[in-house]
Amino acid sequence: MRKVVSRYILREISIPFFMILFILTFVLLMGRILQLMDLMINKGINFTDIARLILYLMPSFLMITVPISLLIAILIGLGRLSRDNEIIVLKSSGFSLYQLMPPVAFAALCAFVITSVTGFFLIPYGNLATRNLLFDIARQKASIGIKERIFNDSFTGFVLYADEIPSHGDYMKGLFICDNRTLEEPATIIAQKGYLISDPESMQVTLRLKNGSVHTTNTELTNYRKIDFSSYDINLDLSKSNGGDSGPVVKDSREMSLPELIRESRTPGLKKNVLKDYIIEIHKKFTIPFSCIIFGIIGLPLGISKHRSGKSRGFVIGLTVIMIYYILQLGGEALGETGILSPATGAWMSNTILGITGVFMLITAAKEKPFIPLFIRNITARTRT
Predict the structure, then answer these.
(1) How far is it, in rounded angstroms, from Cα 37 to Cα 52?
(2) At the N or C end, where does the chain have fewer CB atoms within 10 A?
(3) Which among 366, 302, 304 has a CA at the least distance from the CA of 83?
(4) What DSSP element (H or E) covers 118?
(5) Full-prediction pTM beyond 0.70?
(6) Half-sphere exposure of 26 (CA within 13 A, CB side)
(7) What is the pLDDT of residues 46-86, one digit of tens each?
(8) CB atoms inside a 10 Å sphere around CB 249
(9) Are 63 and 123 in contact (CB under 8 A)?
């Protein structure tokens, strides 16, 4: 009998969970879709790279949508049972509130595992892969944007002209470059051939010139110098192309796995603000998955409470609890970053407060007592009248 009831409750939770998960993830994706379409339509980026970008962004979306979907699904599923008096029937059959917990706990545990795997492995890989792919797209844009017999000024500091570009696009012939990166000595470069070479590790694109000469003069036009070369490298600044800085980069804390974060946080001589950022990021890999357990504890007593409204109540209460949780989370992180609280305490503040509240509500609901003390409800009722 208990297995039948557990499967029945789990089904009532699972159906709205997947529906809400799909809707929320789609809504978050729509916020990025215009930018992705601009890359494909106006920048000439192919559909495969756009699909890869979407795939790399999905873990970050799931880290947010899975806990939210779980809480709202519990409220909707149990709210439907409570509204149709099925919870009363189960209690009359000898089921206590604690005996209704296994299916809710199982759903919360599944969400915990999903968010844990996502936070520990998928998000660091996705964020790093996204940055590498954006660099590759910027490199493609550099090569795609260069057209033969057209002056190209997409690169900061100089203008490039190529007399001929073969159909395969591996190199350029008859290059004429106006280099204004050094204003005191602007240069004109002429080369027979040029190749674009990318280095993903240093996030740089280099224009390698073959068999040419560099002509420089000062601003007063009193000195002139010519240098012949067989090979000459120019590091391109892609900040116009990708909106960021070029040059050597290091992993951001959101791109690091848990072992990398722990190793970096133990680096001697680390700045305090960087150390706090690493510590908060380490704890966030545990606090966000653990929020699924917290939402399961809170969702059970809230879902079975007596009410007459429909599914909208589950959405409203769920969004209210989630808003409170994320406000506490952001506030805790801010207090940890400023030093008012330790980074670990700030990271766990929201889970601690809502966890204690959820346990209190669960025990109170199991004893068939109201969450709000009677005298407070009486004062509220008198105020309304």
Answers:
(1) 13
(2) C
(3) 304
(4) none
(5) yes
(6) 6
(7) 788 888 888 998 999 999 999 999 999 999 999 888 888 88
(8) 15
(9) yes
